[in-house]
Amino acid sequence: GCFKAFYTHKFRAMLGKNRLIFPGEKVLLAWSGGPSSSSMVWQVLEGLSQDSAKRLRFVPGVIFVDEGAACGRSPEERAKTLAEVKPILQTIGFPWHVVALEEVFSLPPSVLRCSSQEPAAPEGAYKAAVDSFLQQQHVLGAGGGPGLAHGEEQLPQPHAQPPWDPQRLLRPPAAVQTEALSHLFCSVRTLTAKEELLQTLRAHLILHVARAHGYSKVMTGDSCTRLAIKLMTNLALGRGAFLAWDTGFSDERHGDVVVVRPMREHTLKEVAFYNRLFSVPSVFTPAVDTKAPEKASIHRLMEAFILRLQTQFPSTVSTVYRTSEKLVKAPRDGPGAGDCSPRCLLCMCALDVDAADSATAFGVQTCSHPSQIQSPTSLTETGTPQGSCCSSGGGRAQSRCQEASSREDPQACILEQLCYGCRVNMKDLPSLEPLPQYIQAEAQLRTQRAWVLAELRDCLIEDSDEVGQS
């Protein structure tokens, strides 16, 4: 009893301390079938029950992403996993969405665009929203609506179909998309890049489902142990600038959909004990790094390092986690601080654009950009480089020529729109052609838009010019 009260209090306190989820808001629970996400779903289920002391007041839904094709699983194995998922979803009773990872090949390019975020609520707005919700609930209850005790039925369901349709649940994805996804992951050379690519595609798919069905929040089951490992891993991957977003309680990089991590105070040991004591069901699904050796990827190596330290020094995970709590999402000074700043094409974090001649790792990568290395085919029959047509016209003409060449090269078009960490991972992909079409289309659109803006900027009269003429 004491352990359950302690466990539940940490979950409720994390939500109550931050106050990001308002009453009646639709929240999508990202359930992978693992211990942490299963425990998170069960905490929400208990929080919505009638005998709960302080009931949760949001409207939940569950999403399960089938990643079997990326892990090399057969259709029979994937069907068996979905058959295990179905009764658990029926027991939970929330509206659910079961989607295959192959559906990323049918996503629109708009999923990579940061939608406008609502301004921060003023102080006291949360309490006013709670009072309004309780008053509305009281009026509905007085009108003879006993089914509205939780407030779920007064909002539209995420989909018009019955919540659990066996035919829809077990329907396999298109064979063409499965083959394309398998080809994409087979072409990645390292396990580190595979894991990063899988996380990116999964995040895009969940974001699209949340937007399509009106969810404004997405809950993930990242535990304290997992976030400590993720912090150290992202440091090794060159994503130190985005640690506050990748490991914090809330992640607002997408604008209209906010990712929250209410399980970040629970260790994996606590989660395992809770699931065992209170029979929380879970589904084992092999991942891309299942049975991989310790040094197969940076993720596996850092996980083994942290867990080995934890066995010898029990405060390791908590120390790393407390360090992540002190990270602040402070925007950089300059043009990268605004909402209109360029964002990474894959992770959608603010793009730290350094000059090509800077002494940073990003600047070195920009210097060694494939589009700037002249290939033998760039020489004409007369032996004159094609870029020499504008090289004598000054820096502006030369930059225009480079922009034109990058627009013609799809691979350079994508690479120049990636942050340092994503660019390093894409180096392990021999060709970017197997990437889903929505990524390539958005990259081409951003490049064309930037080129048009650069052309228009030359025609505009700046304030300094007007002052000089007067």
Automatic annotation (TrEMBL):
Provide GO CC annotations from the record. cytosol
**Gene Ontology MF terms:** nucleotidyltransferase activity; sulfurtransferase activity; tRNA binding
- Is Membrane found in the keyword set? no
Query: What job does the chain carry out?
Result: Plays a central role in 2-thiolation of mcm(5)S(2)U at tRNA wobble positions of tRNA(Lys), tRNA(Glu) and tRNA(Gln). May act by forming a heterodimer with CTU1/ATPBD3 that ligates sulfur from thiocarboxylated URM1 onto the uridine of tRNAs at wobble position.
Q: In which pathway does it act?
A: tRNA modification; 5-methoxycarbonylmethyl-2-thiouridine-tRNA biosynthesis
SUPFAM superfamilies reported in the protein's UniProt record: Adenine nucleotide alpha hydrolases-like (SSF52402)
In terms of HAMAP family, this protein maps to: CTU2 (MF_03054)
Q: What's the protein name? A: Cytoplasmic tRNA 2-thiolation protein 2
Q: Which family does it belong to?
A: Belongs to the CTU2/NCS2 family.
Q: What is the protein's species of origin?
A: Saimiri boliviensis boliviensis
Q: Identify the gene encoding this protein.
A: CTU2
- Region of interest (Disordered), ranges: 145-169
Report quaternary structure and partners. Answer: Component of a complex at least composed of URM1, CTU2/NCS2 and CTU1/ATPBD3.
